[in-house]
Amino acid sequence: MAESGEALGTVPEHERILQEIESTDTACVGPTLRSVYDDQPNSHKKFMEKLDACIRNHDKEIEKMCNFHHQGFVDAITELLKVRTDAEKLKVQVTDTNRRFQDAGKEVIVQTEDIIRCRIQQRNITTVVEKLQLCLPVLEMYSKLKEQMSAKRYYSALKTMEQLENVYFPRVSQYRFCQLMIENLPKLREDIKEISMSDLKDFLESIRKHSDKIGETAMKQAQQQKAFSVALQKQNNVKFGKNMYINHDRIPEERSEIVLRHVLEEEDENEEEVLTVQDLVDFSPVYRCLHIYSVLGDEETFENYYRKQRKKQARLVLQPQSSMHETVDGYRRYFTQIVGFFVVEDHILHVTQGLVTRAYTDELWNMALSKIIAVLRAHSSYCTDPDLVLELKNLIVIFADTLQGYGFPVNRLFDLLFEIRDQYNETLLKKWAGVFRDIFEEDNYSPIPIVSEEEYRIVTSKFPFQDPDLEKQSFPKKFPMSQSVPHIYIQVKEFIYASLKFSESLHRSSTEIDDMLRKSTNLLLTRTLSSCLLNLIRKPHIGLTELVQIIINTTHLEQACKYLEDFITNITNISQETVHTTRLYGLSTFKDARHAAEGEIYTKLNQKIDEFVQLADYDWTMSEPDGRASGYLMDLINFLRSIFQVFTHLPGKVAQTACMSACQHLSTSLMQMLLDSELKQISMGAVQQFNLDVIQCELFASSEPVPGFQGDTLQLAFIDLRQLLDLFMVWDWSTYLADYGQPASKYLRVNPNTALTLLEKMKDTSKKNNIFAQFRKNDRDKQKLIETVVKQLRSLVNGMSQHT
Questions:
Q1: Where is the Exocyst complex component EXOC6/Sec15 N-terminal domain (predicted)?
Q2: Per-residue pLDDT at 486
């Protein structure tokens, strides 16, 4: 029962499998058949049985179907066989037609293939032409780039590179040659940078070498322009010039017109030769390099490099040679190099955009100006030649005017010129000190003799001398001053001219120039001339006659000072009455020199008196005088008479003072001779002889050797000697001792100490000469009297000491 149940269940399943096999694709039959074996054991046998039954059923259906259509199939076969013959005929016809058609189409096929091939070639050619039309401009531009590189047109080459990169290369970027070109452009740019930088270095080296020529040309042009302006100014009003006042006459106007015409002719001759900085220097390397770096976007690097190199060159230019101060050419070369440097910088500033700026040039100029001033201040201090200092000043003025024309501030240079002006004045003072010394050495210190009117006019044209009395005298006659006076006056004017030369072109007012001239002239008078006069006066070989002439000379030079002031006024047109106008101190200078000469006269006169006194040879033990004055004293008095005769040309007070000083010194010398400590004994005979000499001195004083003394004023110089000698000659001790200290004393000028000293010398002499006379009563009384007087005099001396 169980088995029958299972068989019943298997049959529907097998039917389902058979339906799936019939309905599904044969590729999917595998899983269906596998399910047959996966089921119950022996189920495949049943399935096979079932399958066979199914096949039999289908065979039956096919057979039934074939039996149904068999007649129609037979009919169709029959008709097909009928058509077979016609088909074979048609086949033959078609084959023949095809053959003939093929034969006829062979030529067409050949032609068609040719046409196709031509069409392909035509299409390829068109494509090639189109591509070449894209590539040829690129190749042409690249060829153009190569030509520009070869022709060193680097800026154009860079522009061509930009066009290639921005316009042409994008069109043909797929080609290999384009990639090679693109890879080569950076190298070309670097080559251009290196080449342009090399050109720039060559340019910098060139302008370094040619900067002096550039500066020389610029300074020459500035100098010509200045000369033209000065000529115009002189044509309108000639205020400066040495010839205009040398004879107190002005330069004729025709002279200034000739000067102007000469300047214009020179400018016309040099007009074609005027060169600019562009003519002297090729700036194209700078422009090219600047444009190249601008195109490359590296302009800042170029600017920094250019400025750095130029600053280095500036330091080299500003470094002077150690021997620059020795010649003016050294200074000129120094200035021309600096001017050339800044002229180039100014040109670069105005023709380029941003390579150099005004702030940069101002900074560079301020640095250079500080260095220039320091260099000039140091090197000019070594200059001892005023002509060299003057040439240096002119160079500085041209240097400053040139750079000022290019817009550089130069006020500090003109301030420096004021320092150099002081140094220039110092060198002038040293030079004129030598001039004055030479004049004094060559002078004969005697009045200037003149024998004709022409000689008189020559002297008065050199020196402003006016004396109506001298003019009235007949020839030959003499000027009171010596030859050095007009020479000194001329040299002072020459000094003023020399000082004026430095003041020109300093852009200062007439008032300032006037002040500078007066101050420098004051220095000449108060320092240089005064020092030369004092040194002259103190020279040992200058005698009394020369000193007298020096005093006369200084008097006339002092009177000429007002003419010097007028001379300066005529030059500057600044009136002396103007407020703050400096006055000349020549008056005090010549007064001081005259006082020194007077003092030297007194000193030399006293020295001469000492020389005569040293010749005195007294016999201090003589018993009786000679009856006449000593020879040395008479020679001395004769000398004094001749000297005082010369003193008549001196001012009255000077002659009187000299005479009084000489008499006082002679009196003092004679008194010292009596009181000399080495003189131990004096006899009464020697005192009497000495008295004779003093009498001659008194007679000389009373003879009025120099006019102007009141009464016996000059004789009072010997009053001390006179009273002392009278006291001893008269032996009036009682009166002296009784009246001592009284205003009306007869021997008021006799000092007790002096009287005691002389009395002791005579006392010793008395003892020596009267050794055996002490037994005589008169001699003993006299000796006692002397001892008594000595004691009284000692008491007076002691009283004076205690009182003091």
A1: 50-219
A2: 92
